[in-house]
Design brief:
10 helices; seven-stranded antiparallel beta sheet; six-stranded antiparallel β-barrel; 534 residues; elongated; conserved putative lor/sdh protein from methanococcus maripaludis s2 fold; OB fold (Dihydrolipoamide Acetyltransferase, E2P)
Amino acid sequence: MKNKIKKVLNSNILRHKYVKYGLLLTIGLFLGWLFFGNSSGNQDEHAHAHELTDDTVWTCSMHPQIKMEKPGKCPICAMDLIPLKKSGNGGEAINPDAIQMSDEAIALANIQTTVVGRQHAVKEIQLYGTIQVDERLSQSQTSHVNGRIEKLYVNFTGESIKQGQTIASVYSPDLLNAQQELLEALKMQPVQPMLIEASKEKLRLWKLTENQIDVIIKSGKVNPVIDIKSNTNGVVINKNVSQGDYINQGSVLLQVANLSQVWAMFDAYEMDLPFLKVGDKLEFTLQAVPGRTFSGKISFIDPLLDKTTRTSKVRVVTSNPGMLMKPEMYAVAKVNASLRQQNDEIVIPKSAVLWTGKRSIVYVKQPDTETPAFMLQEIELGPSLGASYVVLSGLHAGDEIVTNGAFSIDATAQLEGKLSMMNTEAAKPVTGHEKHSMNVQSGSMQGKHEILKVQGLCEMCKDRIEKTAKSIAGVSSATWDMKTRELHLNFDAHQTNLKTISKSIAKVGHETDLDKADQEAYDALPGCCKYKEN
């Protein structure tokens, strides 16, 4: 090597001194990188590997329940393990089932938390209804005699009338006879003085006034036409006769309603009825009178429920100044119902709750941890308060819960195989101490992951399928997806196999890709689980 370099230096091309110096500098740099560069790179690689292996947890991207202390292969699918996270300071205080997220991940997922406390529970109820006539102020104008309507002074529905106003003139032969009896009784007064009073009483029963009777006595003349007077103030809401009609005693001529006071009739759903009571103050608005609020108190709640609408009528009596409220106008009311049976209870926003069929869950932030961690907590909900819920059990005052972004945390929990809204049991992590029992031995694996298509429809089917699979010795986990109808299985191939699992599931009534369902077991399934088309 040295001879070659010396030969190059002695050549004619390199006799110039500046060319020689430049070439020597280049050769020196190359030799320095050759001897010292690789050692520096190796040191960086060793430092990086040391950083990962000190406190890193290794997992499988396809099987997040796998947790290893060192890198290697997944014992289930033989994929390379990837680093999960560092424990960090204070990691000992974090529950193993908790979901840890960095501050950056929390910001990206827009996760927000709220400290819960006790408060007076108030339920806001919104009711819809219409304005109706106060039935107690409605009256019927009837005829007290038989005859024919000679003149009708009320010509249309909606006309206002006053008490004592003449509404109709009726020709009545019976009334004519009664007046003649009165005049004959006057002639016989010296002999039969009691006949006059009997004749007057007969006319009074036909609703003739004392003035009308006195006019007959003084004039000595009979009038076959009688005027029918109104007995109330109000508005005509129904007109039953026309001029010239023959009527009988007791016939209803008009229906009159007094609108100085009206009813606001609202429909209350059965779930809201326990929170309403007679005497509660209620405010309502009308579409026809924007910008104005009316108020009243609940005077009556119908004890009977409409079987079609599942609502009960709630009545509010209110005055009607200026006749602004007219029958059949639409009304919207709001009631702040105090839940007296739920005083000083924990109330949380609806956005914090995740529902999974029968379960209601929230995520609680663990206190005193350097790395933010969230733990799933199952709760029991009480009455709905509109935008919030009363919590009967599962939380305590001072707990910090996730009120926005809970679904993002739950998705992370599902990916890591921990407790979530879909997983009632967390997958048991496989540690380095258990790795030897799942390693590949002699070209075959003891632990296997298989997918089996199983027919079913509902949550009951899911529970039945998973319980049947898990009851077989060697099956470590079984999860059935209701949408895809795929059963994901992890089992020990030395203890059982896919065919055995399939037969056991078919025996309880659910068909698989491998086996037909037992007919007797299928017939015994509940109606919601019948997946076969008729």
